[in-house]
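**Folding the chain**
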Amino acid sequence: MNYETIRVEVADHIQTITLHRPEKLNAFTTQMMNEMIAAFDESDRNDDVRVVIVTGAGRAFCAGADLSAGARTFELSERKDRAQPKTGADGRPDYSDEAIRDGGGRVTLRIFKSMKPVIAAINGPAVGIGATMTLPMDIRLASSEARVGFVFARRGIVMEAASSWFLPRLVGPQQALEWIYSGRVFNADEALRGRLVSKVLPPDELLPEARRIAREIVDNTSPVAVALMRQMVWRMLGADDPMEAHKIDSRGIFERGRSADVREGVTSFLEKRPPNFPDKVSKDMPAYFPWWQERGYK
């Protein structure tokens, strides 16, 4: 696919997605939404990709939604780039209509379903959707120049991109509510104290650190095991009893225990050499995957 608002590069088994509207501080648009979803589709299909890194071009990560449409930016009925929702007999919008879905949420839900680990390298301001798109990413690193803001209340709108699900799970409800109630923009050190990011680094060390973490995954781990565990951790956040985790753990141990990857993992350890895992995410996921669809989850 030819991308215009992002840049996609694959090297050393790492796919780097760079938000690329630097003249607009990488502000989010419908086109960027579509291109990001396509890039994650591409990474899932490509067994050569083991880890995805997301960063921004220029001095920003993503300054939020593109507000160039002015006061009517968030009024869908005025948007020419979006389908309009159906209305019922009473003239009210059909809230179940696909057209009403939030664009940021489409991106975060696609990232949530990723088969590959995702690392956010937050190189500068990350505001609104620029902050919330990082929440379903697995590891968030921030430059010391990064600034983060969940500014929705200051624009008269509500939090989006499924962040009401992700943010409290990552930082706890008390911290989440302080940030979203105030809508203030805060620095990288506060993001670290609040557990939103795992590390704050000098700007020139940000991408090297993201790549170092990615290389550790690439060089030492089974792609199928990582893909399974990524979904195990995220999906179990909504489980109502640890028995649900036990069921999935047990299936995983049973299925993976008889796999070529496990034989290679044990043998390479005993022989004191790097592993060379043969199983592929594209064709060797166990038969019980995706298990959550048994209960109607999508």
Remarks:
- The chain has a mean pLDDT of 93.
- The chain has two domains: 6-217, 221-295.
- The first strand starts at residue 6 and ends at 11.
- The longest helix spans residues 203-220.
